[in-house]
Structure formats: structure tokens, C-alpha cells
């Protein structure tokens, strides 16, 4: 199905149309891909990286990250300045810039609709709607003064004392307790402003009618195939950033400072789920840049750790970027085979952790573009301890001994272990692990790594391949036993990673459904502390509990190998935001020359 927002497209064409005598300028088009299919474009609901990449270009939160500042820091977006914060650290007062408008939609009945403080009140309340099951609700639930009223009986009109529009452009949020990360929450795509008229005009279909205030708006949309974003003619975004001393950063700042965003007219986005298609598409100049060279494709472009000379001669640039990302394999703690807190189940999960060959994964599958994950936290996240080492090494001999000790001694004729004896009869039943995996070349390679590791300790494993979006849906329902996933920081603080194992988040971000009181108590205590020795001690203890009960096998942290063509301007990878599309520019003439010469 192809969706066309004709009102938006018509407005864009009017804006771009010049007089008959004017010399037409060639349209600047950024060509991109997403690695998985998008889901509905509703900021309250979406959580996959592909959809979030689109949402952060369509919807506007109050705050956004500074494009150039490192370490990452926030700056005003639709707010005219950073908020006024009360002396007790509980109240935040935002002044919203006048003159910010939603893109056109029939729901507005022909009115040019300005964003107000009340729109942000509505948008934040909407995250509490139980019908939406928002994966972002945990960031706000129980934290805003009076928000228990929304939990008791959800209604968008229910007054919340700590969430008020003081006037048309003034928003005040008051918390029940200090939260050192609260401003980070207000910069995630889920905090983007939506219009109530639009949500109510399309009941249950808001994800099919994305109407925001971001730098882009949807033009043509063919689901799971391609989507075109058009420069929003209503956009009031202007570039400001903190450049630092890096010469490349200074050049970007000089090129963009004070200029209206976005810099391109269109972004043409394709869905490219196969690694080979992405790489060949980039090399054929179908995509302007490629982030994270696919593991199985590294040898096509890299030799001895450097970009191949023939590609460097084309002006292609290779850069390495430490992503705030953790790869992990989670196990469902509610699963009847692998879940639970009994000693035999803990031993099974620990044995699986001991069987994972990290060195082989990094060297052969990730081609050296990764480091070992010792804990959930990647480097450069607040709370990361570079000295911490996991107490669970790669040790298949120890894994076998552990399984023998805790009752997994009986084996099938083919040599695979059976489950421990149960009940009065003492009978054993076969033990088969089921691991979901992505239906891609990389997914199949990872299947073989896990098969090799688990077979080495006598464990039979079968693989169930599907699209990642479908696996995520099933994971939230609790019907997936094991799955290798990854988490990219929503904000650069350890809390964003440790919440993945917090009991109340089970069924949302906590796919493992890990719910251990000792962990939950430490997580709640750590949330009240800023980065420092006291919180570091709690994080150490939480790491130890993770390694003791093994709901996760921490895998790797990615060192992304990124490629870009020479005609792409103003590119700089950000550690938190998903895309740079609003800042990027394209030298159309240079692209034409390069593609002719290729």
C-alpha cells in the first residue's frame, strides 16, 4: 500500500515553485536506507531503530542533542532556552518558541495549527495510555507529581498537578523526586509533540498519519519498501552547536551556523534488510553513506584494517565510531525450559554463558570491529567502569561440569542432554533450546556460531528465523525463549541500560522478564544518585547479580566502521541520535561527476 500526504506534498510544491523567469535549481536529495522495515510512525509506540530514525525527523521534542558537542549534551529545540529549574530540583519551566506549526492535515480543518504548551501536556499524558502499551512509559510513570491519577483511570483530560500549561507557550513539569536524567527523557523521539486533533481523527491509526513539526514530513510511503521525506516548509529549526577544537567540527560549524534546517530538499529512504544489498548499494552510489559496515561484508572494503586503495581513490572515507550500543543474548525467565530461579535453571543459563566464544565472534563475525562486553554498559556511558571484568569467562569445560552437577547428565542417543529428572517417576525429557534469529545472512552466520557453542556442551538448539519486527512483537508477548538483541542508548547514562533488566519493565524493554528483588532495589537506589562512587558500587553489585542469574549473555560493544561518499557534507556521527539528516548537505555537481567517473 502506498500512502500519500497530498496536502503536505502540495504545500511543499508551492513553496518550491519559483517564477517562470527564475533559473530552476537541481533538487538536493539525500539517499539513505534503513536496515529493517519501519513500523507505525507513532512516537508513543515505536521502539525499533528504523522507525525511531524516521520519527526523530518528523516530530519535535522540547530538547535535542547538540550536534557537535562531545561528550553529548542537550540544547533547546522547540524550547526557547534550557528550562528554569527550581531550587529543589523538582520543577522545570519551559518557554516554547512561538511560531512553530504542525504540518497540514485535514484534522486541522484548514487552520494553520501552532504548537502550544498544552500539546506537550497531551503528548506526555498519552504515554500513560494503557491501550498503547508505550515502551517509553517507564521514563515518566510514577515520576510526575499527581500522575497516579492517569494510572487509576486514564483520560487525556484528567488533571495532573505536575504537568501544566501555565499559558499558551509556558509548560511546567514538577517531579515527585529528583531525577538526574529527566531532561534526557524529554529529548527522546517518544517525547515529540503530537496534535490531539490528529490522534483523535484517526482512532488507532495514528502511526499511519504522522503529523509533526520536525524538519521533514512524509511525502510518499510504500510500507516496508521505501519512504520519502520532504523538507518541512514550516520548519523553524536553525543550526547552533558547540564545535570544540576538532578541525572537522569547526568546518561544520562554519558551514551551518545560523542556517535554517534541513539543508536538503528530500530524503529518499529504502528498506535494505540484506547486508549485501546495503553494501553494493553504497558502492554503486545508491546511498550517500553507510553506518556500521556489515560484518560479513568487511572484506569487500577493508584490507589490513584500512580502506582499500581503489575505494580511497574514489574519495570514499572510512571512519571508526564507538557506538553507545550493547549486543546481548537474552533468555526468557518465564520460559518453562530455560527460565526460573531454581539452581538447575540458573546452571543451564550459566553454562550457556560459559559456552559463548567471544573471541571467535569478534575476530570472525565482527572482523575486529567490536570489543568484549563485560557488563551491560558500553564505554563512554556515565557509570561505565573500564576496570570491571565479567566473572563468567569462555570455558566450555566448566560449562559441561556445571550441567553434570545440576542434573543434566542423561543424554539422548544422539548425544544431546536431557532435562533433569522431575517428579516421583524420575523420568527425563528431551532438552531442546529454541533461539529466534533474523532471516538475514548475518543472522544465519550467528546461528552457526551459537550452534557450535551450544553443541559443544551437549545442548541441542533449533533456530526460528523471522523479521526482527515480528520477533520484537513476540518478545513483548513472552513467546520467545532466546534471542540475540542489542540496545543503543536513548541517553548517555547507565540507567538507560540497567533498566533493561528492571522487573517492572518486564514485557517492555525487559524482554528477559528478569524480576529479582535484590536487583530491583539496587536499581531504584541507583536512580536517585548522580554519577559517582556510591552509584558505581550499586552498578557493580547489579553486574554481579546479572552474572549470578544469567538472564543475559553480554556479547559485544560495536566499533562501527562507517563509510561516506565525498559529495556528502557536514557528516558527523552522533553517539545518541539515530540520524544526521537535518544537518547534511549534498554537493549535487560533485555527485554527478563522481558517478560518471565511477
UniProtKB/TrEMBL annotation:
* Keywords associated with the record: Signal, Transport
Q: Which Gene3D superfamilies does the annotation name?
A: Dipeptide-binding Protein, Domain 3, Periplasmic binding protein-like II
Q: Where is the signal peptide?
A: 1-22
Instruction: Domain (Solute-binding protein family): give its ranges.
Output: 73-506
* Localization terms from the record: Cell envelope
Thylakoid as UniProt keyword: no
Please name the SUPFAM superfamilies in this protein's record: Periplasmic binding protein-like II
What PANTHER family does the record point to? PERIPLASMIC BINDING COMPONENT OF ABC TRANSPORTER, PERIPLASMIC OLIGOPEPTIDE-BINDING PROTEIN-RELATED
Q: Which family does it belong to?
A: Belongs to the bacterial solute-binding protein 5 family.
**What name is this protein filed under?**
ABC transporter substrate-binding protein
